[in-house]
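Annotated sample (chain length 107).
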Amino acid sequence: MELAGIVNELQQRKLELKSRLERTHRHIHEKEEPVSANFSEQIKQTENDQLVMTLDAEGAEEVMQIDKALNRIEQGIYEQCASCGKKIAEDRLKAIPYADCCIDCAG
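Output written by the structure step:
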């Protein structure tokens, strides 16, 4: 398995996610627009805020998974299932490069 390409892919994805996290963080914590006086608009704003918070949490989780994958690569255990110790299929790692367990253990 070509680990240099995977490292590059993971680092690129991490940069994209960090950029998105900066934007979602600004949206959540640095709002400049006042709350609408219209109740239905307030509901829409709240729903939008909840969606942005969900995206923020998912992005932060993916960054953490990427960091773990990069650490496993450094340790030489990238292709090893964290649960059972067997080899993770190359196709699985191509599809989800930060996967830390084999398909059997993931199910």
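Annotation: Residues 3-29+42-106 form a domain with the Four Helix Bundle (Hemerythrin (Met), subunit A) fold (CATH 1.20.120.910).
Annotation: Helices lie at 3-29, 39-75, 90-95, 103-106.
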